Amino acid sequence: MMFPRWMMSFLVALLTWVLSTPPGTAEDDPLVTYHLGVYLETDQPAAVQPALQLDWPAFQHLLHTRWDQGYQVVDLEIAPDNEHFSAVFGWGSAKQEIRVGATQAAFAQHLTKQTQRGFTLTDLEVTRDPHGRMRYAGVWTHLDEPRLVSYNMSYSQFMNLNAARQAMGWELVDVESAASEALTFHYAAIWQAAGAPTLWIAPTSWPDFHATYHDLHGQGFRLIDMEQQADGRYFGVFVASCAPDYLWAGRTFMGSPAGVSELSGPMLGPEHLIDYEVIQDPHQSADHPEKTPPGRTACGWVDTLNWGGLITLLYTTINEYPLQADIDGIPKNLRLHNTGSAGPED
């Protein structure tokens, strides 16, 4: 059977394209939205459902409800559209105020005003509006706990300032970044006095970030803050700790905080959600290696559990706590990690 010349040319071109295009690099490879949850065992007496991707009126209403119930915002997350807001709550009675969408000049003025009123900036978000202008949002808490804040820094300025402040006893607790259309990055950060030693992991790919996550875990450090930059790289802040922790990644956020019996999803004993992020990546970004195998670490023994892409319903036991989750449409090879399943050995 003979094919027309035009068909042969088409088949040759198609075969050449297929053979020359590595998996996951096709131009139409779609970005998938993932929800990341960072859990760490804390001394919190109770946990409550986080606010996820709400518009501003609904977010405000839930904020006041949670404040009246005796909770505080410990992590604020603003979607790239600057119109949807998320918050992680922890137990606390100190008064809080939140401001979003401020220009840099307005943010600077408000920061000074709040400091004079006795409010400390405890969480910071930096985004870009549809016109490319940098916007600032912050959570101010009325407490007697000094913190240092710097913003609109280049990478080198941030690195130098972080080294200088850590040398003086200030520990990094929050880092944010925003990028121009040309991917020029600006950083903002908060430092806390007299805290446990922290490490900042510079922006890197997800496989490298994940491998570093496991390496530092074995050295006695726990992830407390992470973010995806506009160029797709990840960075994070780690604190010296051997507390049990947990990292969730999935298309839907099923990571319910502990102690909320009316919610479906994982119930993780004493671990509490401390950081929530929304990222976008192709499927292949979730297929990363297990660089650090289970075994003995500075904090005892570490176990790792992987969920295969074909598993949609799993009931098992992690850290001796029941874990039940219905993963709807989980991407192929996406892994759920549970490290630090044991504390220091006796």
Describe the fold and architecture.
InterPro entries: PGH-like_rpt. Keywords: Signal. With 346 residues, this protein is an alpha+beta fold. The chain has one domain. 20% of the residues lie in helices and 40% in strands. It is built from five helices and 19 strands. It has a three-stranded antiparallel β-sheet with strand order 14-1-15, with no helix packed on it. It has a three-stranded antiparallel β-sheet with strand order 2-4-3, covered by helices on one side. The longest helix is centred in the first third of the chain and has 16 residues. The radius of gyration is 22 Å and the shape is globular. 34% of the residues are buried.
Concise summary:
With 346 residues, the protein is an alpha+beta fold. It has 5 helices and 19 strands. The chain is 20% helix and 40% strand.
Please give the structural blueprint.
Layout: H1 5-20, E1 32-41, E2 51-54, H2 56-68, E3 71-78, E4 85-91, E5 96-102, H3 104-116, E6 119-128, E7 134-142, E8 147-153, H4 155-167, E9 170-179, E10 185-193, E11 198-204, H5 206-218, E12 221-228, E13 234-240, E14 245-250, E15 271-281, E16 295-297, E17 300-302, E18 313-318, E19 321-326
Antiparallel strand pairs: 1-14, 1-15, 2-4, 3-4, 5-7, 6-7, 8-10, 9-10, 11-13, 12-13, 16-17, 18-19
